[in-house]
């Protein structure tokens, strides 16, 4: 990994947990020991483990991605009212990304994958495909009829879908090395850097935020990576052209909370599904005004350091 990335990783909100919170998962002792031993001995993970924190956002991801295809219905029991509530605190119009404007946003409490971010040699030893899911569940000691198994099935389904129209690249990464190398390949250069939102892990209630400063991020193409629901950290990444990115400094109108969010604005939505939740929230349609959203805690954006935006 390029040396300059180590300094940039200090800004990433990823991380490791040595315990579970809210999710009960049975792990075979030998596999768990292998994972823990790999995390302790891996040199790269030692260097970033104190500054990287990861969370997964099932409902947020449902807002960010396209609606499920007709051949695969959404997961049973999903709280669509929660989807709507979160979406209203996630999407916004690009003309609001100006100093003095007001954005109403919501930052949920972060949750962490039980086994954290794995070293590549450990992650690669665990099968990662829909066809091998039964074997993976057995190896991890997860009941096939559990909510965790259903979440894993959905993550694998999403990872195995072909890239959508308008996506220049798409991949899933099960380790830090795969995340970095996949982003390099998608951007066509080794000179990349990560960008992430500076948000409280404890979250913050929905409230109006005043824009105090806006810093455009140079580049015409970016790789966005969103973590998915899995026993260990898994990122689904995609490279969408015709996007603009900003670092936006905000101040909460009620709490005074100061945060800096990475904001992505999709200028070309002509290939998006007309039922995408953002169109309903923003009152627009495919091919209409740009659709913007912030990067939730733990998600990251990879930027080509050699690219300079020729126009805004």
UniProtKB/TrEMBL annotation:
**What InterPro entries does the record tag this protein with?**
BURP, BURP_dom
Q: Which residues form a coiled coil?
A: none
Q: Which residues form the BURP domain?
A: 91-305
One GO BP:
pollen development
Query: What's the protein name?
Result: BURP domain-containing protein
Q: Give the organism the record lists.
A: Panicum virgatum (Blackwell switchgrass)
